[in-house]
Specification:
alpha/beta; six-stranded mixed β-sheet; binds coenzyme A
C-alpha cells in the first residue's frame, strides 16, 4: 500500500489525498492503483456517500510521473490509470476536488469528471499534451470543448498554456475560489453537506445529468488511450520526456 495516496473516511466522506510533495504530487502507477481502489471501495461501501480528491495547498498534481510513466507505460484498459479514469467517469456518488497550485495533465482532466471543484486562488490548470508529443486523455478531447467552447479548448489543448483560478471559475470548471490554505477544508465542508443529504437523490440526480454522454465519454477514453499509447512510443514524446529528464527545452524540429 503506497503512502503517496492517503485514504481517510469519516462522516460518510472518503478523502483521497495526493501525498507526494517532493515530486509535486506527480502520479505513479501505484498511486493510480490506490486511487482506483479507493474509488471502487467508495462505490461499494454504503457508509461512504461522497468522495473528495485533494492535494496540498501548494500543488495539486504535476500529472503523470514522467519516469514511472516511461518505465511502466499504461498497458491497456485494465492498467491502473484506466481503472482510475473509468472509476471517476462512472462513479455514481458525488465526487469533489480541492485544487491549489499547479494541476498539470491528468491533474486538470480528472476535474472534468468531478461534480464540484473548489480552487485555491493560486491554482494553475494546464493540459500540455501537445508539448509532450501526446494527445488528450480522460475524455478531455470531448469534455474540454464542451465546457470551454472550441477555441478556448484548442488554446488549452493545443498551445497547452496554463489558465488560472479566475478563468476556471468563469468557464465553470471551478465552483468557487478560496485562499489556498482554506481550499481543502472548504471542500470538505461542502462534502459533509452532501453526505447529510439523501444519497438516493444525489445518485439519481447525477445519473440523470450524466446519462446522455456516459457512453461517449467511455468510448472517447478508449480512443484517446489507443492514440496516447502509440504516441508515447513515437519520437516526439521521446524527445519531450528526455528533455524533461535532462532539464532542457525539447527540440521538435526533427520530429
Ligand atoms: N514527473 C516526475 N517528476 C516530476 C514531475 C513529473 N510530472 N513534475 C515535477 N517533478 C519533479 C521535478 O523533476 C523535480 O525533481 P528534482 O527535485 O529531482 O529536480 C521536483 O519534482 C520538483 O519539481 P520542480 O519542477 O522543481 O517544481 P516547480 O515548483 O518549479 O514546478 C511544476 C512545478 C508542476 C510546474 C513542474 O514540476 C512541471 O511542469 N512538471 C512537469 C509537468 C508535466 O509535464 N507533467 C506530465 C503530464 S503528462
Amino acid at each position: 500500500m503506497t503512502q503517496d495516496i492517503l485514504v481517510h473516511a469519516e462522516g460518510g466522506v472518503m478523502t483521497l489525498t495526493l501525498n507526494r510533495l517532493e515530486r509535486k504530487n506527480s502520479i505513479t502507477s501505484d498511486m493510480y492503483a490506490a486511487l482506483a481502489d479507493g474509488i471502487a471501495r467508495a462505490q461499494e461501501d454504503a457508509a461512504i456517500r461522497v468522495v473528495l480528491i485533494q492535494g496540498h495547498e501548494t500543488v495539486f498534481s504535476a500529472g503523470n510521473d514522467i519516469g514511472d510513466f516511461l518505465n511502466k507505460p499504461p498497458a491497456g484498459p485494465d492498467s491502473p490509470v484506466f481503472r482510475f479514469l473509468r472509476g471517476i467517469a462512472t462513479f455514481p456518488k458525488p465526487l469533489l476536488a480541492a485544487v491549489c497550485g499547479p494541476a498539470v495533465g491528468i491533474g486538470t482532466t480528472m476535474l472534468f469528471h468531478c461534480d464540484l471543484v473548489y480552487a485555491g486562488d493560486n491554482a494553475a490548470f494546464s493540459m500540455p499534451f501537445a508539448n509532450l508529443g501526446l494527445c488528450p486523455e480522460a475524455a478531455s478531447s470531448v469534455l474540454v470543448p464542451q465546457m470551454l467552447g472550441y477555441h478556448r479548448a484548442a488554446e488549452a489543448l493545443m498551445l497547452g498554456e496554463p489558465f488560472f483560478a479566475e478563468a476556471a471559475l468563469e468557464v465553470g470548471l471551478v465552483n468557487r475560489v478560496v485562499p489556498p490554505t482554506e481550499a481543502n477544508d472548504y471542500a470538505n465542508a461542502q462534502a459533509r453537506k452532501l453526505a447529510a443529504k439523501p444519497l438516493s437523490s444525489l445518485v439519481e440526480t447525477k445519473r440523470l445529468m450524466k446519462k446522455g454522454q456516459q457512453q461517449l465519454v467511455l468510448q472517447q477514453m478508449l480512443d484517446e488511450g489507443e492514440s496516447f499509447g502509440r504516441m508515447l512510443r513515437e519520437p516526439a514524446a521521446k524527445e519531450a520526456f528526455t528533455a524533461f529528464m535532462e532539464k532542457r527545452k525539447p527540440d521538435f524540429s526533427k520530429v
